[in-house]
Sequence to fold (282 residues):
Amino acid sequence: MNIQPSQATLGTIITGISLAELGDSVWQELEAAFLEFGLLVFPAQHLSHADQAAFGRRFGEIEQLQSGKDVVPLSNQRRDGSLRKEKEHLMQILIGNEGWHTDSSYMPLTSKAAMLSAHTVPSSGGQTEWADARAGYETLDQATRERIADLTAHHSLYYSQAKIGHEAKPGASFGLHDQAPPLRPLVKVHPLTGRPALFVGRHAYGIPGLSESESEALIAELMNAICQPEHIYTHQWQPGDIAVWDNRALLHRARPYDISEPRVMFHTRIAGDPQFETALQV
Fold:
């Protein structure tokens, strides 16, 4: 097994192993790398859905984004091969995902990890980027750290989709629930590493105690601290690649592409530990 760290403050490329034949001793090495780097990228694995789900369960219980499915498509292509139109609901969700975010922060229990595999990729664009929210926190001065130490923000998929002009309907897809928007700390301390990270992204808004403009300005300031070039890793997908990342430490986003070409990705999301990833009381 070869572990090659990226040039950024996060992420590593791992080759020389078969995830479909993953043994416990190799898993322990991968788990350690996951906690250190936050992102593991495995080129040319070509996993079946069953193998991807099995790998996902190494990290914990799989979050059911669609009932009974451990692996779900994130694709502009329908099952019959036709391509979705830009204004369709699911395309609007995918376009929304081109903003920096962490998975399921809008749910009562946020996600601890997620994975994405590439099956069909467009001729250009369509990359995925990850940004190091741990490094972002470390760049803050002491006064800012003290200012945000006890602050929280609401998280909502309705809010983030509205920001791109999409009026999402309740129940239309995962995350569009009728519960109150979860309230989460601006700083998340990783339960296993102890490293603090900024917990913001496109779903975050409405910091209690601040005006709307003050809240937006502070979230933008924290996002800027995270999304510096040295904190970002960009992956140019090839069919068969799979990546797994730590939602407690990183933000991620998709990059635009020509939606007249198919982009077929498959996603598995790992549910958070209720002790650490449950939302605060509103």
Observations:
- The mean pLDDT is 97.
